[in-house]
């Protein structure tokens, strides 16, 4: 089954996010456009990959079970709240049978959600305003429990495949290449219509779900033994007419982009201001930057934003 949750549900999510933002801000999250020095992307309230560990080496004949992990988004702060509007974080878990050790590979932002959502505007040495995007993301490899329990972050672990050490080492090499080619997090799949344009969007999303599903695809393409028929796939959607490339060498265009981001800066804002600005941004998303640094002008259309999930066929092995 599948669903697109309503604008009402999405607004509820925004209200929750608003209070999260208030709870996580500190005086260090002040507006930065008056500073001459280039600001730092580091968020003092965010710890990237706290359980990070070195990637182990597996023997050729080792047996490793691979799991598709999910947990309600922001579970560490809101418990299961966001599962009610079908918002989830996902990762790949694996169980090394000989040692009984479990590990997780996940795709995560490096500098916190607020810095991902909004770039910083600052003054350079010449007094000109510049845009600093802090959307860097990498794979986190950690040693932690994966099976649902009181000490486990993930609430669901679906066994996807069974691999030998040799096969899994190949997947780890694939992961390293993925890490090099997907270094900027993108929250939204940007398109005109769902599901008609799902395969040909204007911009692809690059998020945790994209990584986990790409990992499962890599398992299938490698001929690894697949043991489940379907896995869940979530999409965060942004609806627009065809984006138009913006010439940022034109000062008028560049200043318009700067103004758009400045008006939406929630750093140092109170609760009500944060809520209004987040709603305005998501329902009136005027500009978007691609992986090459090009800016595009968007023309948002109904339903503006949405969330969709479906069950993806894994072509289970016989």
TrEMBL record:
Spans through the membrane: 6-25
Keywords: Glycoprotein, Membrane, Transmembrane, Transmembrane helix
Transmembrane listed as a keyword: yes
Stored Pfam families: CLN5
Family classification: Belongs to the CLN5 family.
Protein name, as recorded: Ceroid-lipofuscinosis
Organism: Anaeramoeba flamelloides
Lineage of the organism: Eukaryota, Metamonada, Anaeramoebidae, Anaeramoeba
